[in-house]
Specification:
This protein is mainly alpha-helical. It has one domain. It contains 3 helices and no strands. The radius of gyration is 11 Å and the shape is globular.
Amino acid sequence: MRKKTLISATVVMLGLAACGDTVGEQAVIGGAVGAGAAAVTSGSVITGAAVGAAGNVLACELDIANC
């Protein structure tokens, strides 16, 4: 289980590091990273994509991720 957590945390960090220039790009990149993390951890891919998209857009728009 620890390996899955480490892998998904790495995937999320890398995804947030590549924000995207527009809100649409940010949502797509975040969604892809969230879906990938959910797949690795045997979670809901749809929920992971939604959370990833929202998280990446918020992180970029609020300058949390230094986009």
